[in-house]
Amino acid sequence: MSLNQYKIIFWDFDGVIKDSVHIKTKAYLDLFPKADAVIKGKIKDHHLRNGGISRFVKIPLYLEWNEIEVSDENISKYLAEFANIVTNAVIQSDWIPGVEAVISQKLKNQVFVIVTGTPQNEIESIVEKLNIADKFDKIFGSPAEKSEVIKSSLIHYPINPKDALMIGDSESDFKAAYQNGIDFLFCDSGEESDFSKSFLGNRIKDFRSYL
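RE: above sequence
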């Protein structure tokens, strides 16, 4: 597989551009220090299986699992605490090896789109601080749904699905690609999940083989 064969590439962020999946996994667990091992295991497994899904969906669910009232006040409180934990840590985390060079080698006629579960204003700020905003034609964060972003982007540019690729690290990324009939490249972050164990398609650990 050559990345140059695609007219549009959709990029997840955590685990694909930045090695930050473990940061968010730990942050979700740290939100609930009183949770027992069973609940913590359940949270970790759910997060890893659904890496591309927004914290706005996950945190209310995790509150429920911890028998904490799922109120607007509690949701806002836990969202703010989560954001405080992860933003700087994500910026300071390691790049996925080779990804900076691959992004910088983008062809003139290619379209690069970030599509992530990170909130819109947060991902825009992170990308700006990393000095890679000029490499991406569009940046989509939560509450945008990945499948809808792919669908609308293919119409907007317009680009045939056979000329499109999604690079992600989770089952939800794969589903967004599959629902739109585009190719999927699994960036395996090394975090064990049922999806990682069962996925049989194209898989990479990092981008050094594309240099």
